[in-house]
Amino acid sequence: MTGFAEHLLDWFDQHGRKTLPWQANKTPYRVWISEIMLQQTQVATVIPYYHKFLGQFPSVDALAAATEDEVLHLWTGLGYYARARNLHATAIKVMADHNGEFPATVNELMTLPGIGRSTAGAIAAICHGTHAAILDGNVKRVLARYFAIGGWPGKSQTQALLWDKAESLTPNNRIADYTQAIMDLGATVCTRSSPDCPECPFFKSCHARINGTIGQYPGKKPKKTMPVKSTVMLIVELNGEVLLQKRPSKGLWGGLWSFPECVSVETIDSLLQSLKLEELERTRLPEFRHTFTHYHLDIEPVRVSIRKTNRIAEPGVEIWFDVTAPHPIGLTKPVTKILAELPASRAR
Ligand code: SF4
């Protein structure tokens, strides 16, 4: 075992987290769900979602048998919805191709939707004790600082260097503890903005700490100006219900439910016409910005109350959504925000 692993495991024995919900009864299913939820999301945010998700889908067959709407509904608010769609797709594949058992090797795990090399490594190491390295965001930060590896970790050259280090440090013994330990160190001590170096087992050996250059690692993503797009979201209201449409399963907000949209307020009339709806009253609500990884979206919500209609929502594509008794479907973040503010906007 390397000195690095020994130091880390000693620290883990004293300070590591051992009571996280996915650390009890470690099955590949439970670890997989936690690993996917923890991508881009903090532990404290993940815990209530994890309990709710496991409560509704306690096993891979229960998840495979669910509808995509049910899965997306439980994911509402966590963001990066491709994760939820991939979870569902993977559960179906595990049932169909692997008799309901998760494969044990990194290579096989990587064939499942949404499981990359690091997540596969974590599942293999934690659940099967396989000698496999991981390199999630926390581990990248610890290794970049420890070895003073410059460059943005998203760059393939930097990433390859970090993987080399991760592989060479991973011990043969206590692999599950080591995997948990290195994630814990990044999450609790070597944090992004205020690393607690005096509490770190690598205080004496960390290159960035010794050189006083911690702030330089990991290297920042090269800045580029984000484009700005805009849209009008139409909140069509009738008897306390609003019209929602299901987005195509591929692409932005795939499979989630959202308001009908048009490019500008000038095109609202033709949108209503195409929906065969007759407007009674229109109110423009405050505009706000939603930021994606690659662009900003300026959203102008417009509330339109309509004349009573016999038009029936097309099943599976449209829904009249009762705001006071919501359906279990996945909503986009802007829709959740607009719906939460709807009663106040009515009072204006
Ligand atoms: S010494 Fe500080 S910067 Fe280096 S790994 Fe530990 S916490 Fe991170």
Short description:
It contains 14 helices and eight strands.
3D structure, described in words:
The protein is an alpha+beta fold and 348 residues long. It has 14 helices and eight strands. It has two domains: 3-216, Endonuclease III, domain 1 (Orthogonal Bundle); 228-347, Alpha-Beta Complex (Nucleoside Triphosphate Pyrophosphohydrolase), CATH 3.90.79. It has helices spanning 3-15, 28-38, 43-56, 60-65, 68-75, 82-97, 106-109, 117-128, 137-146, 156-169, 175-188, 207-211, 268-274, 333-347, and strands spanning 228-238, 241-246, 257-258, 261-262, 279-284, 288-291, 296-306, 318-322. Strands 1, 2, 3, 4, 5, 6, 7 and 8 form an eight-stranded mixed β-sheet that branches. The longest helix has 16 residues, at 82-97. The radius of gyration is 24 Å and the shape is elongated. It starts with a helix and ends with a helix. The mean pLDDT is 92. The protein binds iron/sulfur cluster. Residues 142, 145-146, 189-190, 195, 197, 200, 202-203, 206, 208-209, 214 line the site of iron/sulfur cluster. Iron/sulfur cluster binds next to α9 and α12.
Shape: elongated
Q: Name the CATH architecture of the largest domain.
A: Orthogonal Bundle
Distinct ligands: iron/sulfur cluster
DSSP summary: helix tally: 14
* Range of helix content: 40-55%
The CATH class of the largest domain turns out to be: Mainly Alpha
Give me the strand/helix succession: HHHHHHHHHHHHEEEEHEEEEH
What is the terminal-to-terminal distance?
Answer: 67 Å
In what range is the share of β-strand residues?
A: 5-15%
Mean pLDDT, nearest integer?
Answer: 92
Total number of domains: 2
